[in-house]
Structure formats: structure tokens, C-alpha cells
């Protein structure tokens, strides 16, 4: 998904993605300061590599920049963190963040660079969701303090639920940059022929395909909710906020449908405020 500007490691990233109304900022504001700063460092990394992947430079330049990030992350784990990553390195050591999760995020960005993703097969879509969303979740649950097994399970399901919701919300924006993340098998089953992303999402049967993806997302939401129900409430406050905000988006998308023309779906600020307040005092 397209970003808007590169974040600076060591500080909360600027721009609309962490504005006062964003779901990320909403979910993070209730964390203790040390956890909140760790999440901003993780988010700054994610934002930076995402902006590289969505940039307009040559493919080779973007791949090189992403590999530079891979080397810098490896340097952190080798005890030679670059000066610009000292703040992130401190969080890596405090919360025992895993190198393979940072690398998985970079691998997900590379998927968007090496080839424009249009109607991937289901296995490729799931791998993409794991890399760009669940891997971030695996970093986050360590910051939140979840135990290993339920943390990994929650990251698996909630990451996929959120990413599939993003895909369903951003059909038109993704098509504008030549991308389409709906699975090829579902498009073929609905009788939608190959074409450009804009041609595919203009097909009358696109609603059927999207509702099927929404069912997959709901299954992941249900599984994530079951994991959180088994965890101490103090360690899943932020995941619960992300869950509720994105599930609300999915609910509104289902009510709107996916036949063209599609209006943008948003969660009202008052609703966001209510969700965060309810979990802040829980």
C-alpha cells in the first residue's frame, strides 16, 4: 500500500499515517511510554521501507535501497548499529525483537518492487500478507508483552485480517498504481477475465469476489479474538483497538458493497475516540 513520506528512525513518523485520527496512533497512545516509543521505532522502519517500495525511482535503485536496510538491520544484530538506527537498536535489545521479522517485512516490500502485483495466486497473497502485516505483528506482540505462542498466533491472524481489510478498502487506490491484490482463483471462479486492475474491479462480479475475501478476513478476525480472549487484558489493549477499528471498516465495506462507483469508507473520529476510551479504562 502506498505511503506518503519517509519516516525518520528515532522519532514518531510524521504525516497522515500517524495523525490524531489514524488507527495506528489511536492504538498506540494508550501504551506506556517505553512501549509506545518502541512501536514508533518499528513503525518508522516499516514506513521507510514501504516508501522505498512505492517510490518512483528505478527498480534497481529501490531494490538496492531495500538491501541497504537489510544490511543495516543485520548490523544492529551484529553489534554495529548504524548511527541513524541507535534508537531502533535499543528497542531491538529491550524487547528481544527478531531479525527474521524485520527481514520478512523487507522481503514483502521487495515483492512489490520486483513485479507489479496483479491478481496473485492465493498462496502468494498469503505470503505477502505474512510479510507485510503478520511480521509486523510478530514484532509488535513482543513489545506488548504477550507470551511467545499466543503472540505468534495473534500476529498470524490479526495481521492477515488487517491486511485483507486494507486490500478490500483500497481497490481503487491500488488500481491507480497498477496493483490488484485479489486472488486469481477467486476472480476466475467468478468469471472475471484477466485484464488491467481497473478493468477487473469494474466487472459486475467483483462484489462476489470481495465478499469472499471479506469472509476470509472475518475468519482471521474471529481467530484473533479467540487468542485475545485467552490473554491478560493489559497486554492486548492496543491489538484490540486495531481489531475494532479495522473490523468496523470491514463491516462498513460489507454494507457498502464493491460495485462501482465505490465511495471511500472511513471510521468517524468520534467512533475512534470511543473505541480508544473504552479500552484505555478497561
UniProtKB/TrEMBL annotation:
Residues 1-20 are annotated as: Disordered. The keyword Transferase applies. GO terms for biological process: carotenoid biosynthetic process. One of its GO terms (molecular function) is geranylgeranyl diphosphate synthase activity. It is an enzyme of class 2 (transferase). Gene3D superfamilies: Farnesyl Diphosphate Synthase. Signal peptide: none annotated. Keywords: Transferase. The keyword Transferase applies. This is Squalene synthase HpnD.
